[in-house]
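Repro:
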Amino acid sequence: MAGNSPIHSFALRLLALLLFVDVATVFLGQSKSTSQCLSYEPSVVTLSGTLVRKTFPGPPNYENIQKGDSVETSWFVELAKPICVDEDRNAPDLNPARIDIHAVQLVLKPEMYEKYKSLVGKQVRVTGTLFGEYTGHHHTPVLLTVTTIAAVK
């Protein structure tokens, strides 16, 4: 009856636990490598949603336009579906992993505001590179440096 001894039973449980941990590690590793999350710059991404314009108080206090703070108007894309962004391994403090992002602030060249103003309030597809927020002028955790904006037909 050596097969039913406490040592044999412990060894079987330990072997089963090790096998479970090994299999779980393989599956967790696979799901991480096939992530559906986007990547920060220099990767180019395309996002879809509604182009919106929002106004915020700016300098000097970033609190209240009526009390003298300047007006800062920014453009955003309110996403059709939330996104996530993987951590930038080269700059994790600047570009951390983010989940459940519903809107992205857009960074445009000055001439782009005139070119694309007719698209405000409409469904668009925006292309560019992502970076993480780092100043008081940034109003979403992730921003997009825009290369193109196109209406969705």
